[in-house]
Amino acid sequence: MKYLINGIIILFPLQYFALGIGTTKFDIFNIVFFLLFPIATFWNKLNRNRLLVVGCFLMFSLILTLNSSIQYPIYRFYSSFFWLLLTVFTFVNSYDFYTPRLFNLINSIGLILLLGIFFQKFMYPDLRPKLFFSEPSVAGLIMYSYSFLSFYLVFIKDNLKLNLLKGIAFFVAGILTESSHIITFTLMMTFVLLSNFKFRHFLILFILGFFTLVYLPESLVDKFSFQENVENYSFSQLSWLQGYNQAIASVKLNYFIGQGFGSTGYLRFYSDYEKVLEKSDLADLNRFDGYSLFFRWVIELGFVVTVLIVLYFVRILIKGLQKENISKYDRFVLFIFGFSIFLGSLLKEPNYGFSTFLLSFYLMGMFINTKMSVNTA
Question: Residue 236: which domain range?
Answer without folding.
Answer: 200-297
